[in-house]
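Annex B, item 7. Sequence and structure tokens for protein A, then protein B.
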Amino acid sequence: MRRAVPDRGSGEATFGEAAPGGPTTQSPLCGTAFLVKKKSEVYAHDVAVKDGWQGRFYEDFEVGDQYEHPLGRTISEADNTWFTLLTMNTSQMHFNREYAARSEFGQPLVVSTLTLAIAVGQSVTDLTQNAFANLGWNDIRLPAPVFAGDTLWSSSTVLAKRESASRPHAGIVTVRTSTINQRGVEVCTFERTFYVYRRGARQLRDVRPERAE
């Protein structure tokens, strides 16, 4: 197996292989001794290629399953201003501090469509990495305000699933997603229905190209 080992002379990494009894160096990256070869002597070795996270397929979903989505997201003032203006939202509650200070909130609100977009985005790694179409959102609620500086976390529960009659390579899944802030207060909930590929669907075959020699 090839391992990167620092070349202390050049500051660059060269590759070595495990070599019991041979000249070795200690790698600070993994604490294992390896034979260091000159760059001109580096050869291809057998390596274990590990697939990254592939996402869930239709077969992986079960009604009642709950997913705690792993990544939190802190919303900045720039996020709020840019998203508001990007989407042509002219409400000054989202980008005019003096205007917003006169409201009951006393400060600008994060535009609700940004809150929704982040909640959906946080759920993709667990739910829709292999989806190809959203079919709809229902019962969207915003029970508490979101402000710049808040950190959002989301989780989802599978409500229903069914096979697609018109698309045998896919199924339809409905989930309910809930988003909380750093204080644990729920700030957004909604239901979402989407098409997701079955495992082994032909549309997913050979998507990634082979590396050119």
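Protein B:
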Amino acid sequence: MTFDPSSSPPAALVPPVPLATLVLDGPAIERALKRIAHEIIERNPDLANLAIAGIPSRGNQVALRLAAYIAQFAGQFVECGVVDVSMHRDDLHQRRRIGPMQPTKLPDNLESKTLILADDVLFSGRTVRAAMDAVSSFGRPARIQFAVLVDRGHRELPIRADYVGKNLPTAYGQRVFVRFEAIDRVPDGVWLEKL
């Protein structure tokens, strides 16, 4: 599956929950991801040794779009993969159910690669910590960077993103909803639940 940057989303935007506020619409998401792609190109001069891995489910979409934009802007194919964190989470015992698992797909020669982990929302930092644990099961990348569409704060671990599309101040109990047409069958959008 690939992302076509020239495709346009449908026009209707419906909140995922009543009274949710639209923070980013489809064009704003694309501008944020294009900016991140440019930042990745600037900070990583050796794009041939770069790979991007999405954290399911919506992090996969972020990774695909970043890889497509990097190829478009720099003319360099970037390998895109998946890092499933389901069994690496430190809160497994607290979860009522484990979401659907996806096979982890990473480059064979991780040791020579800069691996960018991609996700839709950064909150506590526990998901990306689990992703780093999962990656270590497959090898040791030369370096790991982290790209996220939305950083909503409230970190529980000393983790920060290297690339951020939007910093979104939230109350701890507020929910952020990211919707991608390719996954959710609704127009792209980032929504913030009103308290």
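Comment on protein B: The first strand starts at residue 21 and ends at 25.
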